[in-house]
Amino acid sequence: MANLDFYKGKKVLLTGHTGFKGTWMSKVLIDAGAILTGYSLEAPTEPNLFEISKVKDYMTHIIGDVRDLEHLRKVFKEVQPEIVLHLAAQPIVRDSYKDPVYTYETNVMGTVNILECVRLNPCVKSFLNVTTDKVYENKEWEWGYRENEPLDGYDPYSNSKSCSELVTHSYKNSFFSENKVAISTARAGNVIGGGDFANDRIIPDCIRAAKNKETIIVRNPHSTRPYQHVLEPVFAYLMIAQKQYEDSKYAGYYNVGPDDCDCVTTGTLVDLFCKYWSENIKWENHFVGGPHEANFLKLDCSKIKAMFGWMPRWHIEQTMDKTCEWTKAWINGEDISCVMKKQIKEYMEVM
User: Fold this and answer.
1) 68, 134, 144, 262 — which has fewest CB within 10 A?
2) Region of poorest pLDDT, from 24-28, 106-110, 277-281
3) Sheet holding 60-63, edge to edge
4) CA-to-CA distance for 19 and 102, rounded, in angstroms?
5) CA 260/CA 270 separation, integer angstroms
6) Residues 252, 290: contact at Cβ < 8 Å?
């Protein structure tokens, strides 16, 4: 697990800080004492976790587009980051079908621009590009994909993230072969947790329906995904960035996913939501077709476990319990910063 004391006083640049995962990452880094700069578009939803959590008050908050190389250059020159965590992306599969050009511009050229800034700024010692479990050529098989499997995402989102991986590999080989900058990618499974308000994601859809006392509509209850709490990859990313900063031998490509017992169908996930929401809600299968999405997908995380002794801490039931707990606290008007701090502390206490 990441040693958060390591981040105290470290200059960290985080792209995508206004998103769901980026806000949780920001909260962890701020509480650890990092000198944090975030670079991102405005928060993508309303409401959004970034505003609710009030992390903006404790970091340097820059609105910017990763497609804007000149702006990025100015930010890098001013901030002089030691660690760069690249989370900015167009992350929705169905949106990538609606606007593939924007998806590729953001996910591919955005990565090129970030890496170009890393190349031009010797202050950077550790760079992590966060991609997705969907980068692999999906063969619908029942075992997890390993880091050496072929990369070839099907839809524009998945494929653009495969390209982002290849861009990272090329820059690493072409410009950072002397290990002056430690570079890794991390391929995470589907994340859930408090504060995700995105469209076209199953748990936010469940929450909206439950809040409005409506039946939950599930479009593909039989698809299997590696679901995990958002804090699992957040802490894994921080661990990788720290370890490779301290020793470049740890730079590489890592899957970050749950154990096999937490790779469940969407229907099972919604059943768990109904259980922990505990207000007599129901769901219905409304499969109506639509663009292609993988039906069966999970990761083999043997590498990160062997390399760092990393293990998931919260199984799917605990994850759902914490997600519902956070959401009900938000609905009841509680201090969300305190709720997040409490859940982070609880997560770190699990051995």
Assistant:
1) 68
2) 277-281
3) 60-63, 35-40, 11-15, 83-86, 126-130, 182-188, 253-256
4) 17
5) 18
6) no
pTM, two decimal places: 0.95
* pLDDT in the model for residue 287: 67
Residues 36, 7: Cα–Cα separation, whole Å = 10
Q: How confident is the model at residue 140 (pLDDT cuts 50, 70, 90)?
A: confident
Rounded-to-5 percentages of helix, strand, coil across the chain: 50, 15, 35
- Which residue blocks in 139-284 are alpha helix, DSSP H? 156-175, 202-211, 231-246, 266-277
79-93, 140-154, 181-195, 291-305: which range is least confident on average?
Answer: 291-305
Contact 15, 85 (CB under 8 A): yes
d(CA 102, CA 161): 13
Mean pLDDT (the chain, rounded): 94
As a whole number of angstroms, the longest Cα–Cα distance in the chain is 59
Strands 182-188 and 126-130, sheet pairing: parallel
Percentage, residues of the chain above pLDDT 70: 97
Eight-class DSSP state of 80: -
| E runs forming strands in 82-150 | 83-86, 126-130
87 burial type by CB count under 10 A (0-12 exposed, 13-18 middle, 19+ buried): buried
| Length in residues, the chain | 351
C-alpha–C-alpha distance, residues 303 and 317, integer Å: 25
Say if CB 112 and CB 47 are below 8 A apart.
Answer: no
Backbone angles phi, psi at 284, to 5 degrees: -130, 145
Query: What are the b/e assignments for 153-182, b being 16+ CB within 10 Å?
Result: bbbbbbbbbbbbbebbeebbeebbeeeebb
Which pair of tokens denotes residue 291?
Answer: 């663009």
CATH classification code of 10-349: 3.40.50.720
More confident residue, 242 or 290: 242
Provide the residue ranges of all domains of the chain, joining segments of one domain with +. Answer: 10-349
Reported confidence tier of residue 38, pLDDT bands at 50, 70, 90: very high
Q: Say whether 137 sits in a helix, a strand or coil.
A: coil
